[in-house]
Amino acid sequence: MQNTLTPTWQEKVRAFAAQSEEMGALHPEILTLAYQENWFKLFVPAIYGGAGKKLPEILRLEEELAEADGSLGWTVTLCAGAAWFAGFLDSELAKEVFADPRVCFAGSGAVGGTAVKSSNGYLVNGHWKYASGALHATIFTANCVLKNDDGSDVLDVDGNPEIKSFILKKAEVEILAGWSYFGLIATGSHAFEVNNLEVPLNRTFKINDTIEVSDEGFDYPFLQLAETTLAVNSLGMANHFITLVEDAFFSRSGLKRYQKDQITYFTSVLNTCKAEVSDLKIEFYAAFDQSWEQLINTGIIDTNVLFQVSALSRKLAHACRRSADLLFPYCGLEAAKKDSEINRVWRDMHTASQHALLTFEN
């Protein structure tokens, strides 16, 4: 018989979500849950202790995580996404890194540093912003432009500045408090920097250059991987918000003042938002599942299918934000109260919507 007194992971997350925001970091109880469930190693190959999940399952899980708490969903998505690079790492380095049961990657996709070849590796300097999970991360990934001793760029075979990615350990970086935004507060997406840091050669890698270790589907295109994982975060937060809106409207102290046709109008707006998000969710997952099946069955994804995956990722994210904007005015002052759950979800959604990959719908 199921023990109904044992809370689900969703209930546990929601019980500590407000405290996470107050702390500006995921609550220790939520972090313990994340380590137990291997959420920070969703994309890590099984040989290194990864979660053993494939991308279709990961996307649905990240939607659930974001629905439980936006900061948790976002942190897991970005940290697990950074650990996707595990497949490109030197195998001995990877074994060392993933021997830590609480390993967590954080980093930035931006090229924020420079690296000059040295006798033992590279001399790295740089500053990188928006490293979600920085406060509990054990490993940081950082992209750098390679420089010659005279300061000029090292050029690749096509004549462009050469970029390399580096693995930095927590003790080697300085975390700079700077995540002062109104949403996704508990992600602790602070900046980090290093100055004249000597990084060994085995802690460099290039994305999509040489895959050292991989599980099935590891070669899913990185752009669509990023777009889809961000989109399901918006979806999860929208699911949460829409549920809270319905509860907020019908529990308003002034509900009796509204006429029947006004309540009917609100219900119509609510149902329209629900339908738009639901319909796009179905389209989104159908397109993604098709792309995944093509990759697994043939090793190649049709260009038009990838275009659809990208387009539907953005459309879904924009529909989710629009639903929040349309429904917010019906929630009463509770939605404007800074420490209310519905306000936190609204702020998280709008902060997530500022990611560069989600800026334009078309």
Task: List strands and helices in order, with pairings.
Layout: H1 9-23, H2 28-37, H3 55-68, H4 70-83, H5 91-97, E1 105-117, E2 121-131, E3 139-147, E4 163-169, E5 174-176, E6 190-200, E7 204-205, H6 222-250, H7 260-298, H8 303-327, H9 341-352
Query: How are the strands of the biggest sheet laid out side by side?
Result: 5-6-2-1-3-4-7
Number of H- or I-type helical stretches? 9
Q: Pairing-aware structural class of the strands and helices?
A: alpha+beta
Number of E-state strands: 7
Count of domains: 3
Q: How far is it from the N-terminal to the C-terminal residue, by CA?
A: 50 Å
Uncertain runs are none
Shape: globular
The CATH architecture of the largest domain is: Up-down Bundle
Features:
Butyryl-Coa Dehydrogenase, subunit A, domain 1, Butyryl-CoA Dehydrogenase, subunit A, domain 3, 362 residues, Butyryl-CoA Dehydrogenase, subunit A, domain 2, alpha+beta, 9 helices, 15% strand
